[in-house]
Write a sequence for this structure.
């Protein structure tokens, strides 16, 4: 409840909840509001005359995220998941739609009527607490590829990760995936690349700007 309350009322709610013994004495306000929906990441843009809403994913998006994955073509499924895949079951999709917006964040791009929108793009980050680096992954529907959508999702993920105290981003990709490599290099940070087996790892740190 604290996390969905207006920011002006969170402190008071937290104080009252503590008084009622609902939280231990050591719990801080920032710990209890983890999971707050980051409204500031919402944006509506236009691509090819179509309105595209970009926003953090919500639990209600589970079904449309699943449909997005089912509608990807075979090559894009392999590019995104690194192997052929024909089912996207509830447990896997839950990891994409049920997020805390801090350690893991999913951004979706939607077209269509409010409440009935179709997901045409997904960008996710997932924090590795040991390195404090977050892995990013993307899937853009074919008809929206190469139109700047990945770039907008990447920019928002990087801004949110930085804001959340994460040190930098990394991505794994096939070395022939020029779209992903170029997308990663649009970030204003120095990109390091190296091979891990037959996969390419792209890495950047927020304290290392591209020209520095
Ligand atoms: C790779 C992918 C995420 C790129 O997203 P996108 O929305 O198409 O990319 P954008 O339009 O924002 O373009 C980003 C940059 O990549 C370049 N680019 C995009 N697609 C490209 C392609 N197929 N070949 C070469 N460059 C490409 C753009 O020119 C742009 O670079 P620039 O700003 O220097 O000109 C998208 O094509 C996709 O979802 N592919 C299938 C799944 C996948 O490969 N996921 C990545 C692994 S997690």
């Amino acid at each position: 409840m604290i996390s969905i309350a207006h920011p002006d009322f969170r402190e008071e709610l937290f104080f009252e909840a503590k008084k009622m013994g609902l939280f231990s004495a050591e719990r801080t306000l920032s710990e209890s509001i983890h999971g707050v929906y980051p409204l500031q990441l919402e944006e509506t843009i236009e691509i090819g005359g179509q309105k595209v809403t970009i926003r953090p994913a919500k639990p209600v998006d589970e079904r449309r995220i699943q449909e997005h994955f089912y509608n990807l073509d075979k090559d894009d499924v392999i590019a995104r998941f690194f192997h052929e895949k024909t089912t996207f079951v509830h447990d896997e999709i839950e990891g994409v739609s049920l997020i805390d917006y801090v350690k893991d964040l999913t951004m979706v791009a939607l077209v269509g009527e409010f409440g009935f929108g179709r997901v045409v793009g997904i960008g996710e980050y997932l924090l590795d607490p040991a390195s404090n680096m977050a892995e990013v992954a993307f899937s853009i529907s074919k008809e929206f590829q190469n139109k700047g959508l990945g770039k907008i999702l990447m920019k928002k993920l990087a801004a949110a990760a930085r804001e959340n105290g994460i040190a930098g981003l990394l991505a794994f990709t096939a070395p022939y995936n020029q779209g992903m490599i170029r997308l990663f290099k649009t970030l204003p940070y120095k990109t390091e690349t190296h091979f891990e087996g037959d996969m390419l790892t792209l890495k950047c740190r927020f304290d290392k700007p591209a020209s520095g």
